[in-house]
Amino acid sequence: MLQTSKIIFTILGTATIVIPSVMDLNKTHMSNPQWKPHARFHWAIQYLSVTVVQCIALFLLWGNYADKNSILVTWFAGLSPILFWGMFIPALLFPGTSTWPDGVEPPKGFSKIFKKIHPNMILSIIFSLTSIIGIVLDLKSR
Question: What distance in Å separates the CA atoms of residue 42 and residue 56, rounded to the nearest whole number?
C-alpha cells in the first residue's frame, strides 16, 4: 500500500473516532435533554458502528495478517471514513433534519452560511474528498 494513502486513512480513521467522541458524547447529542430515549439509542448504535468500523480499518492498515496491504484494505480503509462523513450530505434530504444540534444556536457573529449549514458539513466534505484522494493515489500506484 502506498505510504501516503496509509497515512491519509490513518488520520481520517483516527479523526472519525475522536471527533464524534469529543463533539457528541455530551449535552448536544447523547445526553441532550430534548432527545427521546429512542433517538439516543439510534445515536448510540451509529456511534458504536462508526467507531468499530474505524478500529477495523486501523487494524487492517497496521496489523499483521496474511493479506496485509491488499487492494481490499485500500477500499475498506478508504471508504470507512466516507461511510460516516460522506453521509452528512444525503442525510439532509430526509425531512426535518438539521445540521445544528437541537437546542444549540450558532454563535453571534457567525457567517450567515454557517447559520444554515453547521461547520461540520464542511469537515465532512473535506474528509470525504481526502479519503477519495487516498484511494485514487493508492490504486494508481499499484
Answer: 21
